[in-house]
Amino acid sequence: MKLSGRQVGAFLRGPPPPELLAVVLYGPDEGLVRERARLLAGKVVEDLQDPFRVATLTGPDLKTDPALLADEAAAISLTGGRRLVRLRSAGDDCAAALEAVLDGPAADALIVVEAGGLAPRSSLRRLAESHDRAAALPCYADDDDTVSRLVEHTVRSAGARIEPDALAFASDHLGNDRMTTRMEAEKLALYAGEGGTIALEDAVACIGDSAALSLDDIAFAVGSGSVAALATALDRAAAETTAPVTILRAVGRHFQRLDAAQALVAGGADAGTAMTRLRPPVFFRRREAFRSQLRRWPQGRILAALARLNRAEIDCKTTGLPDRAAAERALIELARAGAQAAPAMARKSAAERLAPPTSAPSTSQGASSAPALSGLTEPP
After folding, report:
1. Residues 304-355: pLDDT tens digits?
2. Which of 96, 34, 48, 102 is nearest to 73 (CA)?
3. What's the whole-model pTM score?
4. Which structural domains are found in the chain, ordered by start?
5. What one-character-per-residue DSSP string does 29-74 give?
């Protein structure tokens, strides 16, 4: 049985059907896989530590003895009630053992299988989707709305409240893993205390995402042309032992977001609409800086910047030079290029204000209006 969309929520709200023998939970969000597996398990057995009704196996266990799964599923509880078999770290190599159980005699047990990301052609996933006695339950990363609701609900349940800008910050920096999101929300609630209020400064101080914040600072410093801010952010990243290639890729993602926004603007959207349509949207405290960078970096220069970042990553991996030095040199070059764009932008703006109106724009004038950036050549 294949579950999707609203079916997942309805399935998790009630007890598993008695005719269902196995549920395969899979997806890139390992925290969500574990959370939903624990929720399903709790609907079968109240005490998950009960040795008479709960058995825990792993994928490597089945490699050693494939019959273990069938033996545990067929066992009878000494204290009565339906048995629970938890199969963790499962992969396609567990499909044959699970199929043997599903095709075998009826058993009064539920097998909860915890797997990672399974491709559509995965044998384990296809077995769960097609078999009448099994269900495949996907666990994908939470979207912004889900993260926001989870954080707000967790904080409110603890008797605290969170301000909108703090909630926006939390939603922007959480969501890759459900368990991590929940723990960070609980930490915020504990920090505020019952009756307390979580402000933006509290969220920034509490959320364990300092490395991501440093990467954001580096990316925005490069895009804004601030060499001084870049130097400070690079020092902080070095103290956090962030890998230079990780830094280069984070800056690359920032320029890709600028490119996506420029494409939306070219399609007729204004800058504000373009920023809100990005996923995730630009954090509200960064919007003015992002808007300014859209003016500094037209699509031609963005492509050139991405090529320079790619070349720097290759240098880090192949030249034998210190990778941190190679990465920082590229980033400083890009920041200086961004800084050079500011005077040109100001000159162009003044010229446009003073120029008399014309019936049609001059293509030759538009072609020459882009400021030359030292060390950064636009692709043809």
Report:
1. 999 999 999 998 888 877 889 999 999 999 999 888 866 555 555 444 444 5
2. 102
3. 0.54
4. 6-138 (3.40.50.300), 144-207 (1.10.8.60), 211-332 (1.20.272.10)
5. -HHHHHHHHHHHHHTT-S-TT-TTTEEEEEHHHHHH-TTHHHHHHH
